Amino acid sequence: MDAKWHGQKEFGFGADPFNPFAARNVEVVGALKTNDLRDHVMQSCPRVPGVYGMLDRKGQLIYVGKSKSLRSRLLSYFADSNSDEKGGRIIQNARAIQWETQPSEFASLLREQQLIRLYSPRWNVQGVPKRQRPVYLCLGRQPAAYFFLAAIPPENCVAIEGPFYGASRMRNAVDALNKVFKLRDCSQKQTFYFAEQLSLFEIDHRPGCLRLEVGTCLGPCAAACTRNDYDQIVNAAESYVDGFNDEPLTVIREQMENAAANRQYELASRALLTQKSLEYVHRKLKRLAKVRREFTFIYAVNGYDGCNTWYLIHCGEVAAVMAAPKNPQEYAAAKSTLSHWQALASNRLDRGHGAYPHTLQIVSQWFRKHKDQMQRTFAPEQAGRKYYRKSLTA
């Protein structure tokens, strides 16, 4: 690193939950001048898969990316044709670059997502033209669950799905979903009174908004419904998130048709926008539901450096990883882990949402783009000799 560059003293990306091998080294180059930084990359960066991070003059991580060829990707930032694009602006703010090789492109994808979630580099989510911040559709927050959006889903939700893009479109969809299912959308500071709750005195509970009066909320704040009534609606909403319920679309379409028939064109126009938002959400929910139902298997991925990996894909999510056994001894040592994987995969009632629910989108897109990779998958109970030998073939 250039001796004149003064950044943070310690570099690295931290622990990798998807790496079953020894921690991988992180290489760092730095310079005050862009041309010098490019020369350092040319001299030392390899043409292998991996992740990289851009650091500013204070040593802060400002951008994380991945590539199946680190050297080619990093050098592209310095191209004259890229000077006015996103990459050019990022490199203008960078004083150092660090990278960590990965055994495969799939491993790079998982590592990149994990790092972005961990560090939230500002150039990954801000200052990048046409970049939309992902949000998750959540159903939760007791004592009266409802739909809401979150960049990082909280724990103890009834249902979570995503990520989705387009905050305005998603806010419109969430507003419609809460109204169609008659779920509340008020603050957590609101006090809730269910009809079966006993009180020493007869109290006339007033609703916190007009939605009860217009028929778009069950009114759990005004004792207008029982907890069981509300929970039944939450169950129907959960079915929608699971991709098995298209009631919201049907309701909005009827509203639009009625408004158009009555020449209420402004109302029909708003209903049309809401319909488009819900159609986007419904299409994605159906696609992700299909992945959750069908994608439970072991995915064998070869590493360019011999670090071959088995990923347990459970309900479309990466649930666990292990080093692919290379001989009968290693396979025998892995049998207890494989037995656990088999028990987990055999649970047909589980819909996922494990330790890494955010990996669902990566898995879905990966196998949609690389359909041939399905040939490298197999059930945990099939992880016998012919399968670990198969994992060693290119």
Automatic annotation (TrEMBL):
Gene Ontology annotations for the cellular component aspect, listed alphabetically: excinuclease repair complex
A GO BP annotation: nucleotide-excision repair
Pfam families reported in the protein's UniProt record: GIY-YIG (PF01541)
UniProt cross-references to SMART domains, sorted A to Z: GIYc (SM00465)
Residues annotated as domain GIY-YIG: 47-125
Highest taxon of source: Bacteria
UniProt-recorded name of the protein: UvrABC system protein C
